Amino acid sequence: MMTLLLTREAAMWRKTCPVCNVDLNPGVVEEAAGQEKSLEVKLHRLPVLECPNGHRQFADPKFPQLLLDRLVERDEARLPASNAKGMVFKEYHCAACGDKLTDPGDRPHTFHVDVELAELAPFDVELTVPVHRCARCGHEQLHSLSDIRRHTPGALAHAFKGAAIAPPR
User: From residue 8, how far is each of 11, 14, 17 by CA, in Å?
Assistant: First the structure.
């Protein structure tokens, strides 16, 4: 059995469902998925608060922002990404060998991230994006890290909406 820990603020945040006014209890969304342009996000074993009637709330009112900050600032920054050169006409070069990338970059690759946020049960995130393979050294990498960072908020919003998790009030 999975235990969900909540911060004091989260525990005080919402004790009853705003829709049907019954008690909320810790729960888990087994999978929530969302896509924004070339980025697909899947959340596995996502901790939530839910009522017996199936209405869901975030386990912490700050959860969406905490997860977004964690993914964009920490996890996505570690993904292998090409280097852009040129002010007007961008050319992308391999981060490993510096050769110009000519591969169309249409091969999807999934990166796995184990997420632990303060006082919540751990869960997993999968980020699926197209990657480019360098013709010279074979290194696989994202075309543009900034594009992925720009699409992350939308992909997460679609995942939350698809899982029927109500936005914080």
Answer: 5, 11, 18
